[in-house]
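Morning!

As promised:
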Amino acid sequence: MRGRCLRDEHGNLLETIGVTLDVSAQKQAALQVQVQREEMAHRNRVALMGEMTASFAHELNQPLTAIANSASAARRFLQHGNIDLTLLQQLLQDMVADSHRAGEVMRGIRSLVRKETSEHAVLNLNSVITDTVRLVSSDILNRESVVTTELDPHLPQVQAALVQIQQVLLNLIVNALDAVEQLPAAERRIVISTRSDKEDVAEVMVRDFGIGLPKDRPEKVFDHFFSTKQKGMGMGLPIVRSIIEAHGGTITAENAPDRGARMVVRLPAARGQAQKSKAAA
Amino acid sequence: MNEASDSEVKEVCLVDDDPSVLKSMHYLLASEGFKVRPFNKAEDFLAHAGKNHVPVVVTDIWMDGVTGLEVLARLCAISPRTKVIVITAREDLAARATAMAIGPVAFFMKPFEDEKFIAAVRDALNRV
């Protein structure tokens, strides 16, 4: 609503003119777009979970195995009457630690499939990358690929939604794994690096040594429904870009000079983090 | 006291890159009186097997660096009489088929039944 008052030379009110615009339709449309975007992002996360089921099962089976073995060992020591209390305490402590580890895996899975993901926090991207690579390490091994990380210790922290950033990384890692799939096992390499050449920007690069991006226009990979994969929906990278842009960042796709693709994500440093990064350097 | 038999004084090697699983398997076998030598890197185990007699090894499949399948393949050359028990935390029919073709004496999915696992280790030692 906008308006103004007309007054005479003594300041007395003569008349009021006003305009009222109904913007509810625009607001409603914007809200609908937002809901659709979140719905698509959620579907993408669920699809990623499907692709990574083997990794999640592996991550959960390891602590469960350790718990079962420790409990069985304690029972057997007790049955044989040759357990000392220190050893029993150690076995119980191990079981508690492994239960927490299994709980962490479950919490990670739950947060990825949750619809509501917009909770922002100050994040260390190096830690998020390490955790995400660990989460999918079983799939990486199964595909006989190697993912190495080159992380800048002075990377500024960013203000972001953890699950959404994990979603970005998972998409980029899965794409990179797919890109190197046809290569001989010894050449299936992916490098994830971070750097902060500008103090107010945290940069993450996922680089593969696969077949590369469309030569005429690498940015085509961000178009909806564009995919080079047989079973690809062409939705992963558009969602990745929308997430990064919603965080005030950018993502670019380019072919590396020798071979393979480079996906470069740039996110603004959280307020106050750029200076800290500079001081640390 | 647990029943000690001839088989139980022979050494069982364990190979798993997950420290929790390795430690818990060590305790499980120790609770039955087995002598255990744990390795968290397949490379270290292979170096050991190249210089020492290894009657039985329990190895994981999916490990960083050298995998359990490579351990199986290399053991054929450096210690063909070693009995191998394979354990894995993931369903993988191809890996299972490859492992079985190389010839382990037993194959377990994690988490496994302690009774069957211990029986397999005891059986493997008795076959040496």
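The domain at 6-126 of chain B is CATH 3.40.50.2300 (Rossmann fold).

Hope this helps with the figure draft.
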